[in-house]
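Appendix C: a fully annotated inverse folding record. The material below is reproduced so that readers can follow the format used throughout the book. The structure is listed first as tokens, followed by the designed sequence.
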């Protein structure tokens, strides 16, 4: 801490500043010039006060965060450590599978390996984000990121189950990967529509991306350009844009839908999402949750770990030749660790419900 840095944060008094502006307007004569000069002076003073206290705000926030995170860890530490262990096991498993495929002759690699490794990599990163959010007590944010893992695991299951080059939809993996060409061109068009001329993609680059998008559309049909259109062969009777439930049925995820729907409320700006972010405190007042909490942290952790496990199983047990002993042992170990994690989370949930949150 800097020696002359104050220890007490002085709140910005917007009401007093506004009253002074109004008083100066009356004293100086009612005019736009007087009002604008007074208003700018008030804004300048408030800004200077805010910026002069920024370092103090940062220090006090760090100290509060450290206290709250230590408190949260005192309840949830074991479960969170097991979640992180699951994430690291998943990372190691994906790296092993990728290196194993790299030893095979060119052309003999299962086409599902690359997209599934990419999906597992994204799941690992996102699960790490869930862990950090939970460690900080941000239940809603962790739930929103767990929702992303759900979509990744859903895609993983579809590619694993239906992307076998010898199966009934042998081009499913290629459709999935080529959908990138259409998304990239669409992104570039939106960028160029709003960006200043000097930051736009060149005509040559746009023509190249358009040609690749047109090629994919010509090969696979116009549906590939729709959201989730790469999976259209799995529900050929569906008209219009495919929704998540359309993907859940061929993936066998129907029973998982309540978890996804619940997590959706934190992602979208719905009234239901606002209602789920409120609670009634001990004085009977309805309060909007804007900070950390030590309750409800089990569900996002369990979602992240279980969908990570499923994506790992898709990669290790479905692709390539018959699953190796190492693949089976790896998946079984991860599932046992998750079982230990769930037991720790259940115990932590009970403790959290009976413990008031520190401030």
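Designed amino acids, in order:
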């Amino acid at each position: 801490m800097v020696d002359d840095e104050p220890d007490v944060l002085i709140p910005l008094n917007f009401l007093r500043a506004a009253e002074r502006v109004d008083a100066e307007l009356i004293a100086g004569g009612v005019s736009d010039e007087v009002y604008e000069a007074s208003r700018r002076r008030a804004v300048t003073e408030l800004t200077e006060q805010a910026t002069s206290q920024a370092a103090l705000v940062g220090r006090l926030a760090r100290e509060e965060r450290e206290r709250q995170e230590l408190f949260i860890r005192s309840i949830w530490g074991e479960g969170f450590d097991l979640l992180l262990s699951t994430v690291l096991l998943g990372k190691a498993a994906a790296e092993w599978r990728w290196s194993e495929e790299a030893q095979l002759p060119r052309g003999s690699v299962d086409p599902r390996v690359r997209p599934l490794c990419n999906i597992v990599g994204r799941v690992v990163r996102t699960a790490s984000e869930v862990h950090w959010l939970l460690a900080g007590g941000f239940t809603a944010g962790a739930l929103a990121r767990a929702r992303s893992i759900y979509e990744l695991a859903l895609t993983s299951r579809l590619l694993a189950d239906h992307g076998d080059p010898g199966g009934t939809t042998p081009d499913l993996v290629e459709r999935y990967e080529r959908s990138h060409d259409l998304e990239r061109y669409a992104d570039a068009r939106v960028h160029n529509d709003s960006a200043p001329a000097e930051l736009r993609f060149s005509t040559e680059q746009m023509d190249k991306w358009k040609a690749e998008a047109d090629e994919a559309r010509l090969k696979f049909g116009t549906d590939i350009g729709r959201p989730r259109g790469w999976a259209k062969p799995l529900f050929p009777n569906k008209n219009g844009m495919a929704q998540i439930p359309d993907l859940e049925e061929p993936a066998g995820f129907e029973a998982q839908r309540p978890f996804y729907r619940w997590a959706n409320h934190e992602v979208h700006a719905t009234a239901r999402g606002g209602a789920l972010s409120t609670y009634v405190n001990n004085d009977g007042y309805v309060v909007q949750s804007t900070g950390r909490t030590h309750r409800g942290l089990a569900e996002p952790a369990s979602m992240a770990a279980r969908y990570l496990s499923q994506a790992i199983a898709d990669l290790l047990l479905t692709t390539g030749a018959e699953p190796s002993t190492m693949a089976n042992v790896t998946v079984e170990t991860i599932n046992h660790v998750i079982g230990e994690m769930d037991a720790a989370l259940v115990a932590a949930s009970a403790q959290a419900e009976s413990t008031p949150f520190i401030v």
